[in-house]
Amino acid sequence: MKPLQIIACALTLTLAAAVQAQQAAAPDPQVQDLITQGRAAYMKGDLDTAKADFEMVYQIDSRNTVAIGFLQRIKIDQKNKPKYVPMDRQLATLVIPQIQFREATLGSALDYLKKAADRQSGGKIAVNFVVQLPPEQVNTQVVTLNLSNVPFTDALKYLGTVASLDFVYDKYAIIVKPKADATATTTGTTPTAHTVPGLPGQ
Questions:
Q1: Are residues 102 and 72 in the same domain?
Q2: The domain containing residue 29 runs over which residues?
Q3: 102 in a structural domain
Q4: Side-chain half-sphere of 31: how many Cα atoms within 13 Å?
Q5: Which of 91, 151, 158, 160 is most enclosed, with most CB atoms within 10 A?
Q6: Within 13 Å and on the Cβ side, how many CA atoms surround 1?
Q7: Which SS3 state, helix, strand or coil, does residue 43 take?
Q8: pTM for this structure?
Q9: Total domain count for the chain?
Q10: Nearest to 66 by CA among 23, 37, 101
Q11: For residue 107, what are the CA distances in angstroms to 101, 103, 104, 131, 139?
Q12: Is residue 189 one of the residues assigned to a domain?
C-alpha cells in the first residue's frame, strides 16, 4: 500500500471514530425526550407509561443501557405490584362495632364513617366522600341510626335508606348523591330512627 493510501485509510478510520464519538456525546433528541418522560412516569409510579416510553427507546436503540435497565426494573415492579382491589370489596371487610347517630347531621355522620374506616383498617383504607349535595342539606339534614357490628358497606346502605341517598363507589372515592327515585326533598327532614333487627347489642 502506498503511503498516500495509508494516510487516506487512517484519516477515514479517524473520521469514523470521530463520528461515533460525536454520536455518543450527542444522542438522538427523541431518545433523550423519551428517557426523560419515562423516568418521570416511573418516579410517579405510572409503570405503564414508563414502560411504553422505554420500549420506544429500545426500538430506536436496542443497545441503550438506560432503557434496558428501566425495562428490567419495571418488569420486576409489575410482577410484585399488589393487585387492585375495588373499594367496595375492601370496605366490605371492615366491621364497625357501633354506630349511634341521634339527630346527627348528615355531614357529621359521613365524617364519623370516614374516621371509623381509618380506625378499623389501621390507616390502610382511606375513605374519601365526594358529596354531590347542596351544602345546606349536608349541614341541616339529620339522621338517627343505631347499628352494631355492621360491615361498612352495609352501614352506608342503611344511611342511604334513611337519608334518601345513593352511594356510588368510584376508584378513589365514594360519591354521595340524592337517591334517583327520591320524590321528596330531604333537606331538614324529620329525624328518622332506624334499628337493624338481629344485630348484636340491640
A1: no
A2: 3-80
A3: yes
A4: 17
A5: 91
A6: 8
A7: helix
A8: 0.53
A9: 2
A10: 37
A11: 12, 12, 8, 9, 6
A12: no
pLDDT at 94 over 90: yes
Give the closest residue to 115 by CA, choosing from 83, 82, 155, 59.
155
Q: What pLDDT digit, counting tens, does each position of 23-68 carry?
A: 454 568 899 999 999 999 999 888 899 999 999 999 999 999 999 9
* 8 A C-beta contact, residue 106 and residue 137: yes
| b/e burial code for range 137-152 (CB count within 10 A of at least 16 → b) | bbeebbbbbbbbebeb
The verdict on 73 and 91 lying in the same domain is no
Taking a C-beta distance cutoff of 8 angstroms, is the pair 39, 64 a contact? Answer: no
163 belongs to a structural domain: yes
Residue 5 burial (CB count, 10 A):
9
**8-state DSSP, 195:** B
> Sorting pLDDT into bands at 50, 70 and 90, what band is 191?
very low
